[in-house]
Amino acid sequence: MGIDKVYPIYMMSRIKSQLNHFLNLHPNSAVMMATEPCWAVPIAWMGVYGPIYMRAAGLTETLIGWVAFCTVLGQLAGVIMGGWLADHWGRKKTLMTFDFICWFTPMGIWYAASYMSHPFPWFALGALIWGFGFIVAPAWYCIFTEGATSEQTHNAFALFWLIISSNGIFAPLGGYFVSRMGMVHGYRLMLAISVVTVAIGWTGRLLKLKEPEPSSDTHEKTDSLDPGNIFHEHWKALQWMWKFPFCRILLFSGLIHAFYAVMWANFAPLYWTDPRGLNLSESMVSLVPAIGSITTFLVILAALPRCRKKNPVIVLLGAGILITAGMSFLLGVPAGMMSILLLYAVLYSAGIGMYGPVRDAQWLLSLTRSDYRAKILALVNFIGIVANLPAGPLGGMLYHSNPQYPFWCCLLLSGLNLFILGGFFLWQNKFSSSSEK
Fold this sequence. Notes:
By secondary structure, the protein is mainly alpha-helical. The protein has a single domain, classed as MFS general substrate transporter like domains (Growth Hormone, Chain: A, Up-down Bundle). 82% of the residues lie in helices and 0% in strands. It is built from 19 helices and no strands. It has helices at residues 3-23, 27-35, 37-56, 61-89, 91-113, 120-132, 137-145, 150-165, 171-181, 183-208, 213-222, 230-241, 245-273, 287-307, 312-331, 338-366, 370-388, 391-401, 405-436.
């Protein structure tokens, strides 16, 4: 039997297997998975067309970089209290309250911003509120995993990334809106549709999510905490995490990855459509996230299950190589060459499809103490956000000088990430060999 006949059969079996896993998830994980596609729609459109919309509304690349800074600044303000609030106020209440405020409010502001004669303050305010929604991150992760077994955690994150990977398939619909209505009016329609989809997902979670049991226990322990003790509690959690070398590597690798991801996400769509860059049409570039989504989807279905029993450092290293190769292809794409840009999308998305689920699952599985989990997640997010603050303004200044400079910066950082992961892998092998002797 030829490979052309075997591969479709194999893929169908993988799809069936993943659906069976979905039916066996922890109930809270199943609710989160069922409603997550409602957020995939705005994420897909914001990722591709958000920066282009801001440019069409009159913002320069430098100001777009400062809007990205406001997003990260909002994240910083939110995450400071995220872990403590998730323990003190409850996982579900934290998630539902701030998801409501920090999604609907900024989408309304961004809709109105293009009507303003000076739109930058409005875009910045919307970005600040949207970034503040990062306060829900510890509660989100805890609801997603608490009460689940190790196997369910791996399955949940694989399926989560499977759903997230599908968000790019909505990008061509956004491209159609842009081609028919123009950039500004097309994006306003995307925002209006996004409000509806997020409202559906938010209502589903409000009705079906249950407060996790570990969170209830923690709530009793921390209900009497004075806010002045928050720093002390987080410091104890960090000291506990720092004992584990793999946690430290996940922290450093994640910091580097997050920094170049912020820069990449804000300036890649501008580069694709800029006459000084690839000079592609605004509707045409929607094919890039669509191809990327299909690639990530196939990687998670076909490759990730085979990687589960491998050393996670090897998987992260392989993912980093693919991401770096994809970045290199983007820098080599001649203007107007859509076919080579799609090859970049395949390589880069394949790396992201491996890196994201493995990193997330390993983080949650490493944090075995439920009373420290939310605090460590909040603290790691806080450190990452502080490190990411310069990414937007730096990217804007680099882009203003030369549209390729932000991507050369990202390529260097991705190479540094490979160096760290490779060094840890060699140390791990050497340590294992010494232990055996």
